[in-house]
Prior knowledge:
Elements: H1 3-15, H2 22-50, H3 56-80, E1 112-114, E2 119-121, E3 126-128, E4 133-135, E5 140-142, E6 147-149, H4 154-180, H5 190-226, H6 231-235, H7 247-255
Antiparallel strand pairs: 1-2, 3-4, 5-6
Helix pairs in contact: 2-3, 2-4, 2-5, 3-4, 4-5
Amino acid sequence: MSAISADTVLDLERTMTFVKDPCGIVCVLVTYMAVLYADYVVTHWIILQTMPNSLWAPFHVVAFNTIVFLLAMAHLKAVLLDPGTVPLPQIRIDFSDLHSEKNYNHEREEWTMCTRCETYRPPRAHHCRICKRCIRRMDHHCPWINNCVGERNQKYFLQFLLYVCALAVYSIFLIVISWLYPCEDCHVDVSQAQSRMMHSVLLLLESALFGLFVIAIMVDQMHAILYDETAVEAVQQKGPYRIHRPKMALLAEVCGRGHPMLWMLPCTSLNRKHRDVPLLSHDV
């Protein structure tokens, strides 16, 4: 294989990833089934059934499906993007001289050795037993995205949580509105009214449960970002990594250097230029 083609393949491997974990794949499918069911109930049974002649109907259809689209984009990026996998060395490491000072330079005093990947890893990188690789600034492995939450996809994971929360609140709002202000001009039979009520109750329970669950995760993620301490570091009781780092600077590290109004768009990049090279550059 030529050098150009090898670099191209390596770049694709660093950009796109998919973990073949049965539990994660099931959770991803459940996520999309729940979102599609919410879209179906809101559009067919609530908006079209309770406000067919209102100008609010097209507004709610467009607004709700816009949130669904943004949620899907953020989720797909969190699922498929490389979370920050530490590249493997080109040659194997000789563990016999692991403690030899000549193999460490001053810049890598905080680097550690992963015996599973058989490579050096930078500070805050941890090994994921599901991904079977070391991940930069790994927070945790999330089955709902079938991927690790790490340095390069934490922004999209946070966006996904925000849009799920927004979708849950929006669904509950529309359900309550349809109950408080029923369509008096809409003539439906009893079976259709019962079906709409059943779907509304199911969506209400789904939105409440998923909403509360996602809010708890989102609060935990914001705490991890603002206090610069990942979930792995919290378990290890290491404390904040950088105590005096400004909160906005910590947010910008995750969400990008652009304007804060653009932080919630899944189409914007992180404005990072990582150049992954094999982490073992000395002779062994």
